[in-house]
Amino acid sequence: MNVTTDRTGGVAIVRIGEPRLMYPLLSELAGTVGGLIGEGETRLVLDLSPVTYVDSATIGCLMDLYRQTTAAGGVLKLAGVQPRVETMLTMTGAQHFLQIHPDEASALRSFGV
Q: How do residues 49-102 score in pLDDT, each as one tens digit?
């Protein structure tokens, strides 16, 4: 899976470079974000700009990452969510928990960066 991590202004940015985010790829994403939380990162952005498809396992993974981040006293935000992915998040009710921003810059601004 193509996942990169960057830090800007105290915010950890995880960029997903895959068009389809599905079950076989989720363990790397979960490991990356879990590792950041373990390192004490409390402000996280997942940039999903290239992602055009997610499955139900992905929604579950995102909710689990949300729970882990919240339990650590942090905040997890999504950026660049494509319309089809946003529809899936809305259909499952995940948008009530996951903050969605149109792009990475907007998500960073919401952190005051």
A: 999 999 999 999 999 999 999 999 999 999 999 999 999 999 999 999 999 999
Over residues 33-50, the pLDDT tens digits come to 999 999 999 999 999 999
**Alpha carbons 107 and 54: distance in angstroms, whole number:** 20
**Identity of residue 20:** R
CATH 3.60.150.10 fits 3-110, yes or no: no
The burial of 95, by beta-carbon neighbours within 10 Å (0-12 exposed, 13-18 middle, 19 or more buried), is given as: middle
- The DSSP annotation for the chain comes to --EEEEEETTEEEEEE--SEE-GGGHHHHHHHHHHHHHTT--EEEEE-TT--EE-HHHHHHHHHHHHHHHHTT-EEEEES--HHHHHHHHHHTGGGTSEEESSHHHHHHHTT-
The structure tokens listed for 35 are 């590792």
Rg (CA), the chain: 13
Block residue for tokens 């909710």:
63
